[in-house]
């Protein structure tokens, strides 16, 4: 149960911004097929999982409590997210509140002849920091726990696509995520990092 909960929380913490991206993709309309969006998401996020597994496998020979030091990575990412959010607010004030989401939507509507590859690359680019969270988790888990975590992640990707499709047509929900997501993401990452450090026995 703890493995399932950790998997769900780590997925949410690292992919809440991706949910907003998925919502934008689905809101584009006929420019993108839903099938392409879903496949692109799976290709991108599973690629991040595979890279994390390869890195984590190389760390298996280290004592578990020292692997807990990697818990500092999500903590760093959380603190950096808070700092980036602060800088973004300052830039918006200087630019008199120009919105970036509309620009993203316009660029996402032009995926070219290979939308799946484009979506996968965008997903990987926007979720590159996922590796910093997944590696310390996989490094401390047994083979059966890793398999269970991957199953949880695969299921969560499907749920993410489903929610993105539904939320794309609810302006109120989109506004809430856009307004408070910058608070939820860093706090969850910092909490996850503390959990990794404590559970490893480092402290």
UniProtKB/TrEMBL annotation:
This is Cadmium transporter. It comes from Floricoccus penangensis. SUPFAM superfamilies: MFS general substrate transporter (SSF103473). Keywords: Membrane, Transmembrane, Transmembrane helix. The chain crosses the membrane at residues 6-26, 38-59, 65-83, 114-137, 143-163, 183-202. The lineage of its organism: Bacteria, Bacillati, Bacillota, Bacilli, Lactobacillales. InterPro entries: Cd-R_transporter, MFS_trans_sf.
